[in-house]
Protein: Peptide methionine sulfoxide reductase MsrA
Organism: Streptomyces tanashiensis
Amino acid sequence: MFLSRTPVLPTPEQALPGRAEPEFSVPERHTVLGNPLLGPYPEGLEVADFALGCFWGAERKFWQTEGVWTTLVGYQGGITPNPAYEEVCSGLTGHTEVVRVVFDPSKVSYASLLKLFWESHDPTQGFRQGNDVGTQYRSAVYTHSPAQAEQAEASRESYQKVLTGSGYGEITTTVLPADGTRPFYPAEAYHQQYLDKNPAGYCGIGGTGLSCPIGVAKADG
């Protein structure tokens, strides 16, 4: 029913039950950066979670960024525990596709990552990005500290002014804490660094062409 009409998030009663443990394993290391995908991460590194459409192209944006130690893709912000990709795509888990970015703040600031996030997609589209339609493509920032939350909210307000001035609508991006109610579930092995394994693979990432007035972008995409 979620694919036959305008996408809507499921209620807890509608959501798939999921499972207590994941039904697949995650590779040990990043195919490009060579570092471990799963924590614990080295002292001094920070974690950021961004949802900006199909996570294949989104992840590449971040792993190409100087100061990023590792990246991995997964599902966040939903109801179903340990979901599988097909379940997320059904619209019945409530998750969105997310890139987890582990970065060295002495080399790249969280503000710079926010700038890259905003400029790499159209955050006004609701449950879609371009031709990709579904609740799993919604824009979101899941924060790991009060400082991240403050910067994310401020950047959203700043970018809204830019977008409004160019005729775009309201930003639909949610900014929420990545706490125990919004766990990050790593995606299947074949999704991790997908565009490194499949250089000619699908990439639906594309921004508005408008600059976000925060930070300094470090990646060329």
Confidence is low (pLDDT under 50) at residues 216-221. Residues 13 and 102 are 34 Å apart (CA to CA).
